Amino acid sequence: MPTCSLHPLPYRADPADYFAAVRQAPGAVLLDSGRPMAQRGRYDLISAWPLAELAPGADESANDFLQRLRAGLAKLGSATAPADCELPFIGGLIGYLAYDFGRRLEAIPIQAVNDLNLPDAHFGLYAWALISDHQLGTSQLVFHPALADAERERLRKLFSQPTAEPAQPFQLDPAFHADLSETAYHQAFERIQAYIQAGDCYQVNFAQRFQAPCQGDPWTAYCALRAACPTPFAGYQTLADGGAILSLSPERFLRVSQGQVETRPIKGTRPRGLTPEDDVAQANELLASRKDRAENLMIVDLLRNDLGRSCKTGSVRVPELFALESYPNVHHLVSSVTGELAAGKDALDLIAGSFPGGSITGAPKIRAMQIIDELEPTRRALYCGSLLYLDVRGEMDSSIAIRSLLVKDGQISCWGGGGIVADSNWQAEYQESITKVRVLLETLENLNSPVIPA
Q1: Cα(305)–Cα(307) distance, integer angstroms
Q2: What is the Cα–Cα distance from 144 to 428, expressed in whole angstroms?
Q3: Are 79 and 395 in contact (CB under 8 A)?
Q4: Residue 21 to residues 15, 91, 167, 205, 284, Cα–Cα distance (Å)
Q5: H runs (alpha helix) in 266-316
Q6: pLDDT one-digit tens code per residue, 213-261
Q7: Exactly one of 75, 157, 182, 251 is catalytic; which is it?
Q8: What is the pLDDT of residue 329?
Q9: Which residues form the Anthranilate synthase component I N-terminal domain (predicted)?
Q10: Quick one: which H or E segment has residue 225?
Q11: CA nearest to 358, candidates 431, 288, 261, 254
């Protein structure tokens, strides 16, 4: 089998300098582990200039689109990494699935307004990547065998002395506003409670959207956000219309490595304390909360079922339950569900059986999605979708696109939500939906005009 080739570069813990060299190129994408401030992620992945771009047609089914993604990988061609070299990606697909791609997988009514008009999915087929491994302290270019020699040489020169135009200012005019009033949120909450009491569902993840007119360079906004809220599943993707996806996600959706599957759902949140003592108290309260543990367990059970559709019978396990993870703005309760892909199944089968992630829908999933569509006034677009890569070996990693923003058509949109169960308190849930994204909103509202270096 053909082997990828490597070109070493000086190691950089922060991907900004390398990405700045390509960020204005077609299909520029950064999957960002949030280093050096965030500690959980291992790799940064940068690419641009895809060989092909794939998006679903207006009436194309999910399965037909996923089959086109498989065909794209097959066209690029099989390859392997050099011996004794651990690489997450050696060439393949990088892109996003919007939450609304789920409409192509399940029967969901069309009630929420599609005012953002974001395509349900978009992937580039990439024959190279710049990968920084923060565990080994390396940065290197990875070339798939299909990449032309002239392009390899161009990329070596480009990254040997990366230079870029300084990023331009980014600003809001005016500040963010919510699309739901507190009264409207309360009314939707009561409707969810009625559905729960009627036995329709056990949990519904309900969200509100914050929006503001904006102008300037989205990369400037992303650099400010990653400094304020570093997270291990962050990412920046350019859009064809000059917009961008800015994701500061702390949550893994699905990972596949050598046939082993993992998902890490987040359910349960507390704000960080104002003092060290208060912070410890908030964390301990979350760990001891029967409500949050029950909410987390509901989603763990849902994901065990989802993974079971594509994993070997008996291989699905829960090695970690109710673990504490802390971020600059919140504490989270996180669990892990693992499995082994069944014979004849691949990462795209796993996506088809599990998307969108149960942690951001509710339980049972389809009914929760129907209620979300009824009660949230606008479609979620990117929010609660996924940023992901999938390479020609079948290696995949993906996020849940929470703490994520969409810059499109002169507007920036951000969403905050949480799981509502029978014993939820509406004021607490309303406040949590704001707490989760407050650091993002305030960072951009406070962004001043001077240029932020790329």
Answers
A1: 6
A2: 50
A3: no
A4: 10, 20, 11, 39, 44
A5: 276-288, 290-308
A6: 999 999 999 999 999 999 999 999 999 888 999 999 999 999 999 999 9
A7: 251
A8: 83
A9: 13-135
A10: helix 218-228
A11: 254
Q: Residue 261, Cα to own-chain centre: how many angstroms? A: 17
d(CA 4, CA 2): 7
- 8-state DSSP, 359: G
Which CATH number does 5-259+341-446 carry?
A: 3.60.120.10
pLDDT bucket at 448, cuts 50 / 70 / 90: low
Beta bridge partners of 212: 412
- 97 forms beta bridges with 121, 386
Pair of tokens at residue 225? 């956000």
d(CA 9, CA 61): 42
251 a catalytic residue: yes
Residues 46, 51, 54, CA angle at the centre, nearest 5°?
90
Q: Of 90-94, 286-290, 324-328, 342-346, which range is least confident?
A: 324-328
Query: Residue 451: its pLDDT value, please?
Result: 45
What is the token pair recorded at 110? 């069309």
Cβ atoms of residues 210 and 441 within 8 Å: yes
Nearest to 423 by CA among 244, 192, 230: 192
**Whether residue 267 lies in the annotated active site:** yes
Q: From the candidates 262, 267, 340, 408, which is the catalytic residue?
A: 267
- With beta carbons less than 8 A apart as the criterion, state whether 354 and 105 touch: no
- pLDDT tens digits, residue range 322-343? 999 998 888 999 999 999 999 9
Q: Backbone phi, then psi, for 305, in 5-degree steps?
A: -65, -45
Residue type, 247: S
Q: How far, in Å, CA of 251 to CA of 266, rounded?
A: 7
- What is the pTM assigned to this prediction? 0.95
Burial environment of residue 378 by CB neighbours within 10 A (0 to 12, 13 to 18, 19 or more): middle
Nearest to 417 by CA among 236, 269, 214: 269
Please calculate the CA angle 108-248-332 and round it to the nearest 5 degrees. Answer: 80
